[in-house]
Write a structure and sequence with these properties.
The structure holds 2 protein chains of 2 kinds.
Chain A lengths: L2 H12 L5 H13 L1 H17 L11 H10 L7 H7 L1 H19 L7 H5 L10 H4 L12 H4 L10
Helix pairs in contact in A: 1-2, 1-3, 2-3
Chain B lengths: L4 H9 L3 H23 L2 H17 L10 H26 L10 H10 L7 H20 L2 H11 L5 H7 L4 H18 L1 H9 L3
Helix pairs in contact in B: 1-2, 2-3, 2-4, 3-4, 4-7, 4-8, 7-9, 8-9
The chains are: A mainly alpha, B mainly alpha.
Chain lengths: 157, 201
């Protein structure tokens, strides 16, 4: 076995995670290769140094916080599952829907509300009739030459 | 006989809240420790661990036991941790360089755990602290994916198949990742490694 092939197995060898046949192959290589043997020793040291780091304990409130966040989750159910769980609510919803449809199909005899409520203006100061020019004035239409001049407004009355 | 993780998760899926509490009890410490080593902040690690459990709970109805529960759990945790590490990096880039230097929260957290009440030899204690800090910083200096691989391999003792699924790479790529990580640690911890090598056994 070459050094490069052993490299891929060194860590598993250090952790005793190799199959028996692979372990024997690596051991055979190590017997003849001082560089790989040194690396195994050093990797073992690194692994042992990593063991020295202490573990921390989650805070006492950790579980409570998780449970609180879980409790705050909205119930996740499909519409049909929800209806199946609460048949009374489903029945009430169906009745409401039927009532809405029934009311919508009834003929209406009363005038539209908009017409009833429109305010009627009877005493406006605006005299519509007198605002119109007499028909006789229409014969005194401006000449064609003046028609194009917007400043030339014909006098009325 | 204790129920397996998969069985507990299936029970959660069936609506058994107690099984979720058991999973929480089983995995809160491994998750918090893994995330703590990834993000270097106890508070953030706990927040992320809570998020992991919340996502597990949210996914209960779609849960299918196609892989080991731990693979699924640590995949969620690793993804959250990697995103958080990247976010933190961007945040640090935004912090002014002349901001006052504060003590590392992580150092403080661990120190409270392993300071003996009556230290017989204060010098020896300080040496121990410096040694642990050196190991911590060596791990912190690893690129995040290598760090995740080392933590899952060393502290969670997951097998190569599981870790490669968590990190979404092939087993051979994982072995190469771990080899490079251990090489970096060996160089970074050279003074300690040399001393360790001289110890008997």
């Amino acid at each position: 076995m070459s050094c490069s092939r052993v490299e891929g197995k060194i860590l598993a060898f250090v952790d005793n995670r190799l199959k028996e046949s692979e372990r024997l192959d690596v051991e055979k290589h190590l017997a003849d290769c001082s560089a790989c043997k040194l690396r195994v020793t050093e990797f073992r040291s690194v692994s042992s140094l990593l063991d020295e780091l202490p573990q921390i304990e989650p805070s006492e409130a950790f579980d409570l916080r998780v449970h609180a966040r879980v409790a705050a989750e909205p119930a996740k159910r499909s519409w049909w599952a929800w209806a199946a769980v609460s048949p009374r609510v489903a029945f009430a919803a169906a009745m409401l829907l039927l009532a809405t449809v029934w009311i919508g199909t009834q003929p209406t005899e009363r005038p539209a509300i908009a017409e009833q409520d429109l305010p009627v203006v009877e005493n406006a100061d605006y005299d519509v009739i007198s605002s119109f020019a007499p028909l006789s004035d229409l014969s005194q239409a401006p000449d064609d030459e003046d028609a194009g001049d917007p400043t030339n407004v014909p006098a009325t009355m | 006989m204790a129920r397996s993780d998969v069985q507990l998760m299936l029970d959660v899926k069936a609506g058994d809240e107690q099984s979720f509490a058991l999973l929480l009890q089983r995995y809160r410490s491994p998750l918090v420790n893994f995330l703590y080593r990834m993000v270097r902040s106890r508070e953030q690690a706990e927040d992320l661990a809570q998020e992991v459990f919340l996502r597990v709970y949210r996914a209960r109805e779609e849960y299918v036991p196609s892989a080991k529960f731990t693979t699924w759990l640590f995949r969620i945790a690793t993804n959250l941790a990697l995103n958080s590490v990247r976010d933190n990096r961007y945040q640090r880039m935004e912090i002014s360089l002349d901001a006052p230097v504060t003590a590392d929260a992580e150092d403080g957290d661990e120190r409270t755990l392993d300071v003996p009440e009556k230290t017989p030899n204060i010098e020896q204690h300080l040496v121990e602290q410096a040694r642990k800090q050196m190991i911590r910083h060596a791990i912190d200096k690893l690129p995040e994916k290598q760090r995740a691989a080392v933590l899952l391999h060393k502290y969670q003792e997951l097998d190569y198949g599981e870790i490669s699924k968590i990190l979404q790479c092939s087993e051979s790529a994982l072995k190469s990742l771990l080899f490079r990580a251990y090489e970096a640690l060996r160089v970074e911890l050279a003074p300690l490694v040399a001393r360790q090598g001289k110890l008997p056994g």
